[in-house]
Design goal:
The protein is an alpha/beta fold. Helices cover 29% and strands 23% of the residues. The protein contains 18 helices and 28 strands. Strands 12, 13, 14, 15, 16, 17 and 28 form a 7-stranded mixed sheet that branches. Helix 5 packs across helix 6 and helix 10 packs across helix 18.
């Protein structure tokens, strides 16, 4: 059987760049640091060739090599791939250990070996309580996960096609969850047929996901992928949580970090992938503390690691389907079945871009029409001409990102320009980029194609001109619709469906909602006591990533006040 070859890895450092950070990836602990760790673990002695843990295992301990050599191996049908050899003073693990997920690698004694083994619960105490060790270990874990991503050392192979919307969905799910995987394209890879024959599947059944080397999933849902990969293995539906955060965008993750770090039992429910709209951004340049910018995926990964570090539980592809808000504790029904009980709820489900009102739209979503501009979509576009619809910051960031590789980027807006909705630095950058063309008072009126978008027709309202161009890629990033349907009318909303909170709730609104308390709602509290809303889903919020993070962190203080009543 021929194995899939790794494609070019977009948005990640090169192997050479990682090699230059090897001392940070595999630091050696001092004797005093090992001494502090020894209180939390037990020593083990193994002979040459003995396994410390196997790939696919849950609950793998954190190991520190004390004597001898410990080799870390990535299993591969073509033969074992050596990841690294730990010498005395070095430690094992990467992000999967922090998240409580299956190990992607196996550990084995290369020589006679003595190690200090620390179980995961004790390890989390170290990470939370020892600032020096926490910084050193967290940096190493993050870099090691990047190394696995760069080398495609995971437990998943995705077989798909660039003409398949479901393939794009699965690529985005794996990529934005930071899960290493290999991708084999039936249209471009000559090695695909032997691979399909080995697993007894046909091209007409794509996308196909080979999970952990043997389980074949045909066009699986995101929830099925999460289940197969063990993303939510430790999720306990029976525990009464202090607070459930619904949505893992910037606001939700910030709420989780602050809630967990301040001692609340916090659970985050995410229907798809962490990060929200911000997570799909190629680069955020106006976020405080990152003068050179940071990708939405990198920012999300760091926030997710922080939340897990402090003890929050994050459930992936486990969205909320309904909130029972007429009793306490609240009950949140999950789209995948079951329910969660919570003393307080923070709604951070954000908003989604509006859809074009065109009859052919659904045919081309994922195969020419996109709602995110990450490295996954950019690889599909190559050097082709593209259209970006929208005049906000997300559209501006998408246009400047796509302009790096696309021949021409057309920005279409219905207004007179960009000044009302886009940051000035992005407007200047667009003006200075020769292959970006701005079309004002222009809208798309037609889409054509067979299994992929092939032509786009737009109308210039100012001149009345209608043009049809052979453009195969269109990015829609205009307008926003709040994700509030799952609330079923529990809370008061404004005329656009965004949740009203605090001062925006008039006495008439509160009377209509049956507000039961003598006090008024707190700043981000909804018309239901102990139910809060933060970020883009909240009425009157500033639609910026930094603002969402601020609201998420502030809200936790309000939750404490409400729970103390």
């Amino acid at each position: 059987m021929t194995e899939p070859r790794p494609p070019r890895v977009g948005g990640l450092p090169s192997r050479e760049e990682l090699d230059r950070r090897r001392e940070q990836m595999f630091p050696r602990l001092r004797e005093d640091q090992i001494g502090r760790l020894s209180r939390f673990g037990k020593e083990r002695t193994l002979g040459p060739g003995e396994l410390l843990w196997q790939d696919g295992e849950y609950g793998v301990p954190f190991h520190v090599a004390l004597e001898g050599e410990l080799e870390v191996i990535h299993p591969d049908p073509r033969g074992e791939q050596l990841v690294t050899v730990h010498v005395p003073g070095e430690f094992t693990g990467e992000i999967s250990l922090l998240y409580g997920r299956r190990s992607l690698v196996r550990g084995r004694a290369r020589t006679r070996l003595r190690v200090l083994a620390i179980e995961q619960e004790q390890f989390k105490k170290v990470i939370q309580d020892d600032a020096e060790l926490s910084e050193l270990i967290m940096r190493a874990f993050i870099l090691r996960r990047v190394g696995l991503l760069v080398n495609r050392w995971g437990d998943v192979v995705l077989v798909g096609s660039r003409h398949s919307a479901a393939t794009l969905r699965l690529q985005e799910f794996l990529t934005r969850n930071g899960h290493p995987h290999q991708y084999l394209d039936v249209d471009a890879d000559r090695d695909v047929q032997p691979f399909l024959d080995h697993f007894k599947v046909g091209v007409d059944e794509i996308p196909i996901l080979i999970c952990r080397g043997d389980k074949v999933l045909k066009n699986p849902s995101n929830a099925e992928v999460a289940e197969c990969l063990g993303f939510n293995a430790g999720l306990d539906l029976t525990t009464l949580r202090d607070v459930v955060v619904v949505g893992a965008g910037p606001a939700g993750l910030a709420a989780a970090v602050y809630a967990a770090s301040e001692g609340l039992d916090a659970l985050v429910l995410e229907a798809n992938v962490p990060g929200g709209q911000a997570g799909s951004s190629s680069r955020i340049e106006n976020y405080l503390g990152f003068p050179t910018g940071i990708s939405g995926q990198a920012l999300t990964a760091r926030a997710l690691s922080q939340a897990e570090k402090f003890g929050a539980t994050v459930a992936i592809a486990r969205g909320a389907a309904r909130l029972e808000c007429d009793r306490q504790p609240f009950s949140i029904e999950l789209a995948t079945g079951g329910s969660i009980q919570a003393r307080a709820v923070i709604v951070a489900t954000g908003a989604v871009y509006r859809r074009l009102e065109l009859p052919e739209l659904s045919r081309f979503e994922g195969v020419g029409v996109y709602y995110a501009a990450s490295f996954v979509e950019a690889q599909r576009c190559g050097t082709d001409e593209v259209i970006v619809i929208g005049g906000g910051n997300s559209a501006g960031q998408a246009a400047t990102f796509l302009a790096r590789t696309s021949r021409t980027v057309h920005i279409l807006v219905r207004g007179e320009g960009l000044a009302e909705s886009m940051s000035r630095y992005l407007i200047r950058r667009i003006q200075e980029t020769p292959n970006i063309v701005l079309h004002t008072r222009t809208q798309v009126v037609g889409l054509e194609g067979n299994d992929h978008l092939e032509q786009v027709t737009w109308l210039d309202d100012a001149r009345g001109d209608r043009r049809t161009l052979p453009i195969r890629h269109l990015f829609f990033m205009a307008g926003a619709v709040p994700n509030t349907e799952w609330l079923g009318g529990c809370v008061q909303v404004d005329d656009k469906g965004f949740i009203l909170t605090g001062p925006d709730l008039s006495p008439e609104r509160l009377t209509q909602a049956g507000w039961p308390l003598q006090r008024r709602p707190l700043l981000m509290e909804t018309s239901v006591p102990r139910v809060f809303a933060v970020g883009d889903v909240r009425s009157s919020s500033v639609k910026r990533c930094a603002s969402a993070v601020g609201e998420g962190s502030i809200c936790v203080q309000l939750v404490h006040r409400a729970l103390a009543e």
